[in-house]
Design a protein that fits this description.
The chain has 158 residues and is mainly β. It is 4% helix and 33% strand.
């Protein structure tokens, strides 16, 4: 596991992951309903996965009964209004507190993926009127064009 504070100070830029290390990413325009993904960023040469356990950790790879770990598996479900709910267990990604119990119709749990080019996306919530983007440190900030800490790859869990 990597320490958040140390990484935050050491991250000059987040580099988009490429090649076989990340594999195939889901483009923003692709449908994903009912599929499970890892949400990945490339940080200082490492793949870092969004972890529902509130930890900033390198993605775990290799043979194991839990590869990837359950905390790195996010179920993406399309909603009728064109948004998506991003869920880990009974918790959904929620702009008001990182995760919260999944609630049907809760605008703070409704997300859109906006293409940032090259199969990377911004994960955006519009419930507050101002677009909020998922940031590298599992927080939400106003979406900023060119902010590399707000870009993600969705890698299908096979």
């Amino acid at each position: 596991m990597l320490n958040r504070g140390i990484l935050k100070a050491a991250i000059p830029i987040i580099i988009a992951a490429t090649g076989a290390v990340v594999g195939t990413a889901l483009p923003a325009s692709a449908t994903a309903s009912g599929q499970t993904f890892r949400l990945i960023q490339r940080v200082n040469g490492f793949n870092v996965c969004l972890d529902a356990g509130f930890e900033f950790s390198r993605c775990q790879y290799g043979p194991s009964p839990d590869d990837p770990p359950a905390l790195e598996k996010w179920l993406v479900t399309a909603l009728p209004n064109g948004t998506e709910q991003i869920q880990n267990g009974s918790q959904c990604l929620d702009v008001t507190g990182f995760t919260a119990p999944c609630t049907s119709g809760d605008a703070s749990q409704q997300w859109v993926r906006v293409s940032a080019g090259n199969d990377i996306v911004k994960v955006v919530n519009r419930s507050s009127g101002q677009r909020q983007c998922l940031d590298s440190f599992w927080t939400f900030h106003p979406c900023t064009r060119g902010d590399k800490q707000q870009i993600w790859r969705f890698k299908l869990v096979s």
